[in-house]
Specification:
Length: 532
């Protein structure tokens, strides 16, 4: 009798413990954070600063713009419920869906207008201001030739935003996916202008995650935002971002299971230690729309001579560098556009053509009225892999052309400052597109005055071709103008392209649903962990 009474209790206890265990496992599964790392501290999480490399992808987790990229890289509506485009392709009218800031306030068209105009106001503009050039009067405003009120962004009401462009821009909706195009809460920014630099009561966002913890130089912790308009489909509880300045330490922590993702698009993996991962198939890779190249200072000799620039470009053997130094599946760059951005299949010039290089050098020396070979200073960031590439180029130019090349290696901030200010001769740099369109890369050289144009090169016919492409609605005709522009660029050679890169990374095998874009963006919106 006692056993009969006890048996239901035992059974109930077992069922209860089993249920508790299942619930605990389910909670652990539901509360799973993704652990990632970046190399450098973040100075601000305000969208207008998000053009800076270390901030871009974190800002993208915190904010949502009018449009976003889906898992196939296509532009789809985000906070824009719909968009209407005028017949001349010059005016875009966005109707916003109902959505909220993480404090519960509604996101309005006025928040977008305020954020975009502040981004291009000369008093506040950061490097990300360049992403707004397609909008009417932005370029003029940044040069103080037009007022902020003349910029083509206007709120019709809470739910309607009207945008006028300088010219038809078939890539404009792609621009709207950039983190710099995110809204900012107008009232909070006016009342508390430093809100984006620390964790404080006024730091709010409207994306899939919100800020939970921020310890400068150490850690940034994000948690799921329950007020995000698509929160029902966000499965991660949050994302933990560790600031780890040594890539080898990142690999160590990844192997211990303390990090779920290392490598691109946050930072490159050190080549010396990833060979084993490559061999056992653990290394993942996606294409990147970008190129490693060398800016040439066209305002100073010897690179103010076109034939000298071409001599150096043709003498470099890119395949040799890729096969024996880089060894990560890069491809020789005989232009500046790759993948879906490419406007021409045929290479613009021949890799490692020493005979032609010597011919160009002979013509250059004649034009410079000298028989003495000039020396070259190759400036680069302090990086072991970059140093090896530079040493190979140094040797190739010595053997092919008899040129003496001095390698000047400094820390990245110093290197960037020197090249930006024109205090260099030949400067190493990586360049990536922010758009799924050729215009971003080609626009770098539109004018000598542009901060991005570190070669200081300018050509009236190149400008004319880009201007024609701006006004052209027919996609085929526009592509032809862009093709001619790239051909001219490679004929003039204000930069020397080296190779097209890929994005390599290591991730937890159970982490699914993460999208890595060729534009070097990463999206954890719909990521989750599968059963281990």
């Amino acid at each position: 009798m006692m056993m009969r009474r006890f048996y239901p209790l035992v059974l109930a206890t077992i069922v209860s413990l089993t249920l508790f265990s299942c619930q605990k496992k389910q909670r652990q599964k539901e509360e799973r954070f993704a652990h990632i790392s970046i190399l450098a501290p973040v100075r601000s999480l305000e969208p207008r600063f998000s053009h800076e490399k270390s901030m871009k992808n974190i800002v993208n987790m915190l904010y949502e713009g009018l449009m976003r990229l889906d898992s196939n890289g296509n532009v789809v509506p985000a906070l824009a419920e719909s968009v209407a485009v005028s017949e001349d392709r010059m005016t875009y009218t966005f109707t916003l869906r109902n959505s909220s800031w993480s404090n519960g306030d509604p996101v309005t068209a006025y928040d977008f207008e305020y954020a975009w105009k502040k981004s291009v106001d000369p008093k506040y503009a950061q490097t990300g201001a360049s992403t707004f050039y397609a909008i009417k009067n932005v370029a003029a405003c940044l040069k103080n030739e037009a007022s902020i009120d003349e910029v083509g962004v206007k709120s019709i009401d809470d739910k309607t935003l009207e945008v006028e462009l300088e010219h038809p821009a078939p890539y404009f909706l792609y621009l709207c996916t950039c983190p710099t195009y995110s809204p900012v809460h107008k009232k909070i920014d006016c009342d508390h202008p430093g809100w984006g630099s620390t964790l404080n009561p006024y730091f709010i966002s409207n994306g899939p995650f919100k800020l939970k913890k921020w310890k400068k130089g150490v850690e940034i912790s994000l948690e799921r935002n329950p007020l995000y308009f698509d929160a029902v489909n966000v499965r991660l509880s949050g994302i933990s971002v560790q600031i780890i300045e040594d890539p080898n330490t990142q690999i160590f922590l990844f192997e211990k299971g303390e990090l779920d993702w290392i490598g691109h698009p946050f930072n490159p993996l050190p080549i010396d230690v990833i060979g084993d991962f490559q061999e056992d198939g653990a290394l993942d890779c996606v294409e990147a729309y970008g190129v490693s190249w060398y800016f040439l200072n066209t305002e100073q000799p010897p690179f103010n001579n076109k034939n000298f620039r071409k001599a150096v470009a043709y003498a470099i053997n890119r395949k040799e560098i890729i096969d024996h130094v880089l060894k990560l599946g890069e491809t020789p760059a005989m232009g500046i556009l790759n993948g879906e951005l490419a406007v021409q299949e045929k290479p613009h010039f021949e890799d490692g053509n020493i005979m032609l290089a010597r011919k160009y050098l002979k013509e250059a020396l004649k034009e410079m009225e000298t028989e003495e070979l000039p020396s070259i200073v190759l400036s680069q960031r302090a990086n072991p892999l970059t140093s090896r590439v530079s040493q190979v180029i140094q040797d190739q130019l010595r053997v092919a052309l008899g040129l003496k090349v001095e390698i000047d290696q400094v820390d990245w901030p110093v290197h960037l400052d020197r090249v930006s200010k024109g205090n260099y001769e030949m400067g190493e740099m990586g360049w990536y597109s922010l758009l799924k369109d050729p215009i971003y890369m080609l626009d770098t050289f539109r004018g000598r005055h542009l901060a991005s144009n570190m070669s200081r090169w300018e050509h009236p016919h190149y400008q004319e071709l880009l201007k024609k492409s701006d006004a052209e609605i027919d996609p085929k005709k526009r592509k032809e103008y862009l093709r001619q522009a790239e051909t001219l660029l490679m004929e003039e050679m204000p930069i020397i392209p080296l190779c097209f890169n890929s994005q390599y990374y290591l991730k937890n095998k159970n982490l699914k649903g993460v999208y890595v874009s060729p534009l070097k963006e990463i999206d954890f919106r719909y990521a989750s962990f599968s059963e281990e």
